[in-house]
Amino acid sequence: MIEQIGINAGKVWTILDKEGRQNVKEVKKATKLTDKDLYAALGWLAREGKIALDIEEKELFVSLN
Q: Which of the following CATH numbers is that of domain 2-64: 1.10.3210.10, 3.90.650.10, 1.10.10.10, 3.40.50.1000?
């Protein structure tokens, strides 16, 4: 399970590196991850200090640090 979370985190990181700041809906669509898998990957990246999370008008945005 931990290995798969790391793989999914890599997918999220790749999208953010290529496209820049995205809202969570855009990241989910681009990576085709389930909610559970996406949020686990975001948690992994956040714990490592690789992403920044911002809320604007009730929408969650993600960007690389």
A: 1.10.10.10
